[in-house]
Design brief:
It is built from six helices and six strands; from the N terminus they run E-E-H-E-E-E-E-H-H-H-H-H. The protein is mainly alpha-helical and 284 residues long. It has two domains: 96 residues, no CATH class; 104 residues, no CATH class. The strands form three sheets. Strands 1-2 form a two-stranded antiparallel ribbon. It has a two-stranded antiparallel sheet with strand order 3-4. A hairpin with a 2-residue loop joins strand 3 and strand 4. Helix 2 runs parallel beside helix 4 and helix 4 packs across helix 5.
Length: 284
């Protein structure tokens, strides 16, 4: 897959195993519709020399736009790939993440909740009321199977209030099943009895772990480290090249990624002085 990656003006190519994602930016929808087939033909020509062919019917197409941009009839125009039209989709999946044109997290977390409910329905038959799995086994299933399915993607998306409430309502059912309590049990007690924290706490924990992984990784391992603020120290002696720098044009200098030639800066630290009163006794 490496020869299929090349630098695109105001664009980006990503791949994972045999999946290839192509993103291009322009000033209009019609510009994207003309630009994307040209880039696809370039990639297709490179693939022919490598003996690789793409499955054209599996292609998915979507327009990105900011929340302030309105829906336009022009963006419904299809693109042509090998004389086969592809209309833009309302949602697109990439590596388990569900994206929408406005990057709203509601679609992603509604699908994650549906998948978690399917998994929970299967494992719930293993422990009917009064028999089956012990509470310890139910707790292990909830933490190792249902929780990761439900919370997948919180490192990239932050659920809004509505999505967070629906996720938490489903998680209450999991807590009730793990403790074999009544459905009328107070919610505050369920989290303690089941040793399963509430969804807002789990989301905050996973986001902090993802942030910790980003700041503690060298730029060569995690490219997102390149976008850290210039005052943040780097674990390597240099920054890696960033091929998507053209997408950041027009942003404030605070949000711009560093040049790969920028030297690493030392982490600033504070020194505190401890003041203690001097006690003296009475003179003889």
């Amino acid at each position: 897959m490496k020869p299929l990656h090349f630098r695109i003006p105001r664009g980006l190519i990503l791949s994972h195993k045999d999946d290839l994602a192509l993103t291009a930016a322009s000033l209009s929808y019609m510009g994207n519709i003309r630009h994307l087939p040209q880039l696809f033909r370039t990639i297709q020509a490179r693939a022919v020399h490598l003996g690789i062919s793409f499955s054209i019917p599996k292609t998915e197409f979507i327009h990105w736009r900011t929340p302030s941009q309105r829906h336009s009839e022009v963006c419904l125009s299809p693109i042509q790939l090998d004389r086969e039209p592809f209309h833009p989709r309302d949602s697109l999946r990439w590596l388990g993440y569900w994206f929408t044109p406005t990057l709203s997290p509601s679609t992603h977390f509604s699908r994650r909740r549906a998948q978690a409910q399917g998994a929970f329905t299967l494992i719930r038959h293993l422990s009917p009321p009064g028999t089956g799995l012990a509470p310890y086994g139910c707790h292990r299933f909830a933490r190792s199977l249902v929780g990761p399915i439900l919370l997948y993607g919180v490192d990239l998306f932050t659920p809004n209030a509505g999505s967070l409430s629906r996720l938490n309502t489903f998680w209450h059912k999991v807590q009730t099943w793990a403790t074999n309590c009544f459905s009328s049990t107070p919610i505050g007690i369920l989290a303690i009895e089941s040793c399963l924290p509430a969804v807002p706490l789990l989301v905050l924990q996973r986001q902090r772990l993802a942030a910790l992984q980003t700041v503690c990784s060298p730029p060569g391992v995690k490219p997102a480290t390149v976008c850290l603020h210039p005052s943040f120290p780097s674990l390597s002696s240099h920054r890696t090249p960033d091929s998507s720098r053209a997408q950041t044009r027009g942003l404030s200098f605070v949000n711009l990624p560093l040049s790969w030639k920028t030297p690493a800066r030392l982490c600033p630290f504070r020194t505190t002085s401890l003041w203690m009163p001097r006690l003296t006794g009475p003179s003889p």
